[in-house]
TrEMBL record:
One Pfam family in the UniProt entry: DUF347
Record organism: Plantactinospora siamensis
Keyword tRNA processing: no
Keywords: Membrane, Transmembrane, Transmembrane helix
Region annotated Disordered, chain positions: 296-336
Record keyword Cell cycle present: no
Superkingdom of this protein's organism: Bacteria
Transmembrane segments: 48-67, 79-98, 104-124, 144-163, 234-251, 272-292
Protein name: Membrane-anchored protein
Biased composition (Low complexity): 308-326
InterPro entries named among the record's database cross-references: DUF347
Length: 427
């Protein structure tokens, strides 16, 4: 889906600050979506800032980036795409706040964001008489543009989560479904459907596509992913983004946005080639790293999951403690093997039993990170049971991280979590 180039007078003007819609635009957009979501999770969980601090920080950084974007006189790729990445983070955080904090269903949040986006478009059109991307040539139009971008990310997050979690499609099916919908949108555009309509539909769909693609690469092979992990996937995507945005910056400096296709590095065919090269690099490197990880795992005695399963099933495993009783031979969930989490919980229990609450607090960090990393693979299998475990894990984290933690309260929370893990474990 591409728009005709804007008039040269607008392109050279100081308020034309959005890129031409090309193949590389869509590749960067999808990759930026995954980077944004992964980075927010990294700050919240791995760094330990927590959702509240991360939310405030990302809103503040986005505000600064948008001020810079509005103050620039022409399209500047690095600041434009920084704003897109940050908006992808904030849009995701808005949806997560509605879903996780306020407990609003994904059905309702998807409907609400759809209405909000429609309102933005109606007001935008009534004020400006156009929604075309090539017409972003006044401060007010740029304001409407970024408002629409923010809502599309919130809507895309809600719709994607609804499809992959509430409807139990999973990230593999999500990748195929949302990729197929984007292909249909492109075909509709080629068949004569409105460019404005097809652009915004595709823009919404790239958000859940990017999230599903990221999960496909990061999730464990037990869940059908390539098991690259969030760090490797983020670095890989970030490297490709840097190359493509660097090229965008060179072309913008030389020719401006409307003349993006000119020059020795420009043209439609080179643009397709660069976009294809970026996708191919991700596929080749991703598969290579996944295969390398498999070979390293094959050479070891046990994988993390195997160790968890073995520890859960034999006496004396896990710091000399007997395996907890009460495990059902036929669990009532589809969550599968939860042994890796049970192993960490037993370690934390052992620390609490010794009244080493500081050690338990340090070890429970591994549970938080491991549980967060596995969310995309586990949650679609049984969302209700996943939410129950998620709440009980939050209770354990809250108890251990209290200003003056109570040993009895920590032990009780851990016992409740252990019983639920044993009851839900599918091994």
């Amino acid at each position: 889906m591409a728009y005709p180039a804007a008039p040269a007078t607008l392109t050279r003007g100081w308020l034309t600050k959005v890129p031409a819609i090309t193949a590389t635009f869509w590749v960067i957009k999808v990759l930026s979506t995954t980077i944004g979501e992964t980075f927010a999770d990294y700050l919240s969980v791995n760094v330990g800032l927590g959702p509240a601090v991360t939310d405030v920080m990302m809103f503040a950084v986005l505000a600064v980036a948008l001020v810079i974007q509005f103050r620039t006189r022409r399209y500047t790729p690095w600041i434009y795409w920084l704003c897109v990445v940050l908006i992808s983070i904030v849009g995701t955080q808005i949806t997560d706040f509605f879903t996780d904090t306020l407990g609003i269903s994904l059905y309702l949040s998807t409907a609400v964001f759809s209405v909000v986006l429609a309102v933005v478009f109606v007001v935008w059109y009534r004020q400006e008489r156009t929604l075309a991307i090539t017409s972003i040539d006044t401060p007010r139009r740029e304001g409407f543009y970024w408002a629409a971008i923010l809502v599309t990310f919130a809507l895309g997050t809600a719709a994607g989560d609804l499809a992959t979690e509430a409807l139990n499609l999973g990230f593999r099916n999500g990748t195929l479904i949302f990729g197929g919908l984007i292909l249909l949108t492109w075909l509709a555009n080629r068949a004569g459907a409105g460019q404005v309509l097809t652009f915004w539909i595709a823009y919404v769909l790239t958000r859940p596509l990017g999230a599903s693609l990221g999960d496909l690469l990061t999730q464990s092979k037990d869940f059908g992913g390539l098991d690259l992990g969030a760090s490797k996937t983020s670095l890989l995507f970030f490297a490709v983004i840097l190359v493509l945005v660097g090229r965008e910056q060179v072309l913008a400096n030389r020719h401006g946005v409307a003349a993006k296709g000119e020059g020795p590095l420009g043209g439609r065919r080179p643009d397709y080639a660069w976009a294809a090269a970026g996708v191919a690099a991700i596929a080749i490197i991703g598969l290579g790293l996944s295969s390398l990880g498999s070979n390293q795992s094959d050479g070891s005695t046990d994988t993390v999951a195997d160790q968890g399963a073995n520890a859960a099933g034999r006496p004396g495993a896990g710091n000399g403690a007997a395996a907890p009783a009460g495990k059902q031979p036929h669990p009532t969930t589809r969550l599968g093997n939860l042994g890796r989490f049970a192993t960490i919980v037993r370690d934390v229990q052992a620390s609490v039993a010794r009244n080493d609450l500081a050690g338990g607090k340090a070890r429970v960090k591994d549970l938080e990170v491991s549980w967060d990393d596995a969310e995309a693979g586990l949650k679609p299998r049984d969302p209700g049971k996943w939410h129950q475990l998620d709440g009980e894990i939050d209770d354990v984290l809250t108890a251990l991280r209290a200003g003056n933690p109570s040993r009895a309260d920590c032990a009780q929370r851990l016992t409740t979590l252990t019983q639920t893990l044993n009851r839900f474990d599918g091994v």
